[in-house]
């Protein structure tokens, strides 16, 4: 079953997992298997005035819709592109007096699209909205209560002149959003900024060690002629060689967790028991829970104490980060590392989590040498755990490379930036803004490295002069979220 640009994949019934996607031809790492525009998408409530409602890019100055005063756009191009989807929403917001929450707005956009086009197969879709999983029957009491509240709010917002839908169908749409909503990120890929529904992507089953990754591409509206504009879309990209007939899988959760924890998260959020190879055989769990080897191997009791101390510290760190108390975060990280280092192995996830936070916050505070030391250890641990072509790994290696560069450790910095570039070429592709940024850094560090190799003394002299004249580029303020997860799920 193929349709509009989807010739290279087919929907099939996967044993024990329901529907899935499989490849119709061979793919190599970095190949785009398919690109899919959103069926419907909205910006998160907290960011509606700083993110463009069409391409989801973060911009300094946005144009506001003169009618509803709610939607914001980069420019006229984005505003015109949005009108078909915004027209009904615009008058409904004016009638209602205010914009409802993101979930209600997304449900309304889906139903207006169904009103315009019917609920059958949309162009380029392998499945219809009617056929997407909603898991409403699996909802717990709390989720059912939320669903009832959402349906009531929706009915207050939905205009009387629009097509009226039955309660069961409206509940189905909210169920679909709850378990199939995909997280949209800004152009740098570092912050989750919205949620969208992509019916074809929803068919890809989960595997903790997948053969594909999903990247959100904000599209390009900068070309002078609109025929060169590209649409906002997701891209399903191959991470390893895929043969015709292979199932295409993506990971719904970050791999950096022991199998039992990943399974719990998947059961809670997506209502299935993960039976992938890595979970069944608990592959890499031993690395993630590694303890120091050698003469004085710590006792089970000591290990338990240190892990509990790490968990308690991570809670304190989160609280301090929320309040912007970054020096307090550094103090907590140093104390925790002192306790962890004699006990936990270098791939232990509790050690890696503290190293990651410490390197990020110290970079922000411009304490680059200490940050670089922690970043190097974090990356060494990640390399042993993650799939070599993992987007999270690529981003972490990039961060470590920039930190080393800022610390004046040009050889290590350049090496890490090249390594990150090789990973992101596969996971994000050459035209993604992150990859382009990284290419600029790669060229810059290569030039500096040549200068360093020719005359070390002159290199440091010039670096010192440059730093006096220009403030070193400050790292972005540490975010309280990990990288956006694949699917958006209300916690």
UniProtKB/TrEMBL annotation:
SET domain boundaries: 7-253
Keywords: Cytoplasm, DNA-binding, Metal-binding, Methyltransferase, Nucleus, Repressor, S-adenosyl-L-methionine, Transcription, Transcription regulation, Transferase, Zinc, Zinc-finger
GO cellular component entries: cytoplasm; nucleus
MF GO annotations: DNA binding; histone H3K4 trimethyltransferase activity; zinc ion binding
Subcellular location: Cytoplasm; Nucleus
One of the GO biological process terms: methylation
Name of protein: [histone H3]-lysine(4) N-trimethyltransferase
Family matches, as PANTHER family: HISTONE-LYSINE N-METHYLTRANSFERASE SMYD (PTHR12197), HISTONE-LYSINE N-METHYLTRANSFERASE SMYD1 (PTHR12197:SF184)
Transmembrane helix among keywords: no
Quaternary structure note: Interacts with HDAC1, HDAC2 and HDAC3. Interacts (via MYND-type zinc finger) with NACA isoform skNAC.
Xref: SMART domains: SET (SM00317)
Name of the gene: Smyd1
Enzyme Commission numbers on file: 2.1.1.354
UniProt xrefs under InterPro entries: H3K4_H4K5_MeTrfase, SET_dom, SET_dom_sf, SMYD1_SET, TPR-like_helical_dom_sf, Znf_MYND
Record domain MYND-type: where: 52-90
Organism: Stercorarius parasiticus (Parasitic jaeger)
Top-level class of the enzyme under EC nomenclature: transferase
Recorded catalytic activity of this chain's protein: L-lysyl(4)-[histone H3] + 3 S-adenosyl-L-methionine = N(6),N(6),N(6)-trimethyl-L-lysyl(4)-[histone H3] + 3 S-adenosyl-L-homocysteine + 3 H(+)
């Amino acid at each position: 079953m193929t349709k509009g640009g989807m010739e290279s994949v087919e929907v099939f019934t996967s044993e024990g997992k329901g529907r899935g996607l499989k490849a119709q031809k061979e793919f190599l790492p970095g190949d785009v298997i398919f690109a899919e525009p959103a069926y419907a998408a909205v910006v998160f409530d907290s960011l509606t005035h700083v993110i463009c409602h069409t391409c989801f890019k973060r911009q300094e100055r946005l144009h506001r819709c003169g009618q509803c005063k709610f939607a914001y756009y980069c420019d006229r191009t984005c505003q015109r592109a949005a009108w078909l989807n915004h027209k009904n929403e615009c008058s409904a917001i004016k009638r209602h007096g205010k914009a409802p929450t993101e979930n209600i707005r997304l449900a309304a956009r889906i139903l207006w699209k169904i009103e315009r086009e019917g609920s059958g197969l949309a162009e380029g879709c392998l499945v219809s909205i009617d056929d997407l999983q909603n898991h409403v029957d699996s909802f717990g009491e709390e989720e059912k209560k939320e669903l009832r509240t959402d349906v009531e709010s929706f009915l207050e917002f939905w205009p009387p002149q629009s097509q009226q839908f039955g309660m069961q169908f409206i509940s189905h749409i909210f169920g679909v959003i709850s378990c199939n909503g995909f997280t949209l990120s800004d152009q740098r890929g570092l912050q989750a900024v919205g949620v969208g529904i992509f019916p074809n992507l929803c068919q890809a089953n989960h595997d903790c060690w997948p053969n594909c990754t999903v990247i959100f591409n904000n599209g390009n509206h900068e070309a002078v002629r609109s025929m060169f504009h590209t649409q906002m879309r997701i891209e399903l990209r191959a991470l390893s060689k895929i043969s015709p007939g292979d199932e295409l899988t993506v990971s719904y959760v970050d791999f950096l967790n022991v199998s039992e924890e990943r399974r719990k998260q998947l059961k809670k959020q997506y209502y299935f028991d993960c039976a992938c190879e890595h979970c069944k055989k608990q592959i890499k769990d031993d690395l993630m829970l590694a303890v120091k080897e050698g003469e004085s191997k710590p006792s089970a009791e000591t290990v338990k104490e240190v892990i509990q101390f790490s968990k308690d510290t991570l809670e304190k760190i989160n609280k301090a980060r929320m309040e912007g108390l970054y020096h307090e975060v550094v103090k907590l990280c140093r104390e925790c590392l002192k306790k962890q280092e004699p006990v936990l192995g270098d791939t232990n996830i509790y050690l890696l989590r503290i190293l990651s936070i410490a390197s990020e916050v110290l970079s922000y505070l411009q304490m680059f040498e200490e940050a670089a030391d922690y970043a190097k250890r974090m990356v060494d641990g990640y390399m042993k755990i993650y799939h070599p072509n993992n987007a999270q790994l690529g981003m972490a290696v990039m961060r470590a490379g920039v930190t080393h560069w800022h610390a004046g450790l040009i050889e290590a910095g350049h090496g890490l930036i090249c390594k990150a570039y090789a990973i992101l070429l596969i996971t994000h592709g050459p035209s993604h803004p992150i990859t382009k940024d990284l290419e600029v850094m790669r060229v810059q560090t290569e030039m500096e490295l040549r200068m360093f190799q020719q005359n070390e003394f002159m290199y440091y002299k010039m670096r010192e002069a440059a730093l006096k004249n220009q403030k070193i580029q400050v790292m972005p303020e540490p975010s309280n979220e990990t990288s956006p997860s694949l699917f958006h799920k209300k916690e």
